[in-house]
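Technical annex B. To support the medicinal chemistry partners, we prepared a structural model of the target in complex with magnesium ion, based solely on the information shown next.
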Amino acid sequence: MIDVKNLTVYYGSERALDDVSFTIEKNTTCAIIGPSGCGKTTLLYCLAGLLAPLSGNMTVGGQPISGIRLDTALILQDYGLFPWKTVWKNISLGLQVRGLDKAKENQIVESILRELGIEKYKKKYPMELSGGQKQRVAIARSLALKPDLLLMDEPSSALDAITKEHLQNLIVKLYKAHPMTIMMVTHSIEEAVFLGQKIVIMDEGKIKMILDNPHFGDEDLRNKQEFYNICLKVRQYMNSGDQDE
Amino acid sequence: MNKHISRLKLDTVYGLLILLVLWELLHLLIQSTVIPEPFMVIKRFVNLLPGTLMSHMLASLVRIIGAIGISIVSGVALGLFTGVNDKADKLISPIIYVLYPVPKIAFLPVFMILFGLGDTSKILIVTAIIVFQIIVTTRDGVREIPKGMFYSARSLGMNKLELYRHLIIPAIMPKIITSLRISIGTSIAVLFFSENYATRYGIGYFIMNCWTFINYVDMYAGILGLSLLGYVLFKVVDYAEVKLCRWVMIAKEGTRNA
Ligand SMILES: Nc1ncnc2c1ncn2[C@@H]1O[C@H](COP(=O)(O)OP(=O)(O)OP(=O)(O)O)[C@@H](O)[C@H]1O
Ligand SMILES: [Mg+2]
């Protein structure tokens, strides 16, 4: 689904990504983890077609990325909801832009509101919602477009521990109900292990290591020993090469 | 929605009451014809309104609306253009910064020579004074929109026009409302000045004329008319804010209750 070869990105004279290559198969999930400033968001923006790389090749679904792709959905770190639109309007916006007729639009929004359990907030504005509710609205807005690729930037970083786990469970549930490729950025090792079939460890604009995680999809995973074994493994790979750790 | 409107009404009654009390106190304290009794002025105002004041107020209103209308349309357009386009900003902003602090009112004679003694010069002088503030506010408003919002909008598949409609215009609307309020205040002050030349219509002219004839009660009735004009305009803007920026009202309420 995603094929990235020798991707290099600069901001001015600063190199944000350095010769990054990886592939992600269709309808699998991938978690990107790494320290702050290592280029995770930059990589996501490139895949979303928002940033043009200096060099390298990127294809999504076999097509080279050139600008916005309508079947790719992006959820930003701060959710990217519009404060002047109600929950309903935020969710229907992408559909409206795609020129769907009103009846169809209403039907999709209704069903997605129901699926995510946020019907009762439909007339509220984003600032009237908690972080977890906002995140669910952002997910609803993306899912309404029936994407085949969902990009998420630190979906749970602003949430408390309990809400975080609820959200992670929700993402697994949605993934099982709607086949799509999910690529997410995270700071949390536990989140990466819980949500990534593939775990990409980054550091300073480079990929340090790619791990396969056979335990993905087990909703009870957090209570099992294997979970902690993998977390430990990821932690060790992340710290390897660091003198001060 | 109704909650906001009725709240506006209550605020109005309260404001008026305080004003009347202060006025009456001042009248009692100073004991001079310069501050007539409020009740007398109100009576005079009611008498003068249909035949005399109304036409003066209308003349002023047309000028104010004309000036604000031209300023908002051209100011917002230029502000958007410079806010979105860095090259245009580099070319246009220095000119705006140089012109902004120039006391345009001093050029009233020039405006009168260039645009005649009629309404055109009066409207254009007001426009020249308020338009800069609108340009700068709009431009800064566009710049303040978080980058992530643009990313979010673009990733939803919006084209340029939709970016304006769903993102840029709503984001700067609260700023436009604020600069509208400032514009109303300024344009009334400027108009008062410019209506003292080459016209026999306009509430500014009426007030100064009464003053010349040392008719303080009529003068105050005129001031009341001018205030009323400004007040109605402010309320129109308040109403527009409730209608167009509901999210801001809700945010304000949230912080008030918190
Ligand atoms: N718009 C920009 N202009 C200049 N430099 C930037 C810009 N955005 C990011 N950078 C730089 O590029 C590097 C990678 O940034 P990026 O946002 O991709 O990191 P990140 O891994 O997402 O970090 P975090 O975990 O803190 O979100 C950083 O060193 C950052 O300072
Ligand atoms: Mg980031």
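Notes passed to the chemistry partners:
Residues A 11, 14, 16, 36-42 surround adenosine-5'-triphosphate (ligand 1) (CB under 6 Å).
Chain B has two domains: 1-34, 36-257.
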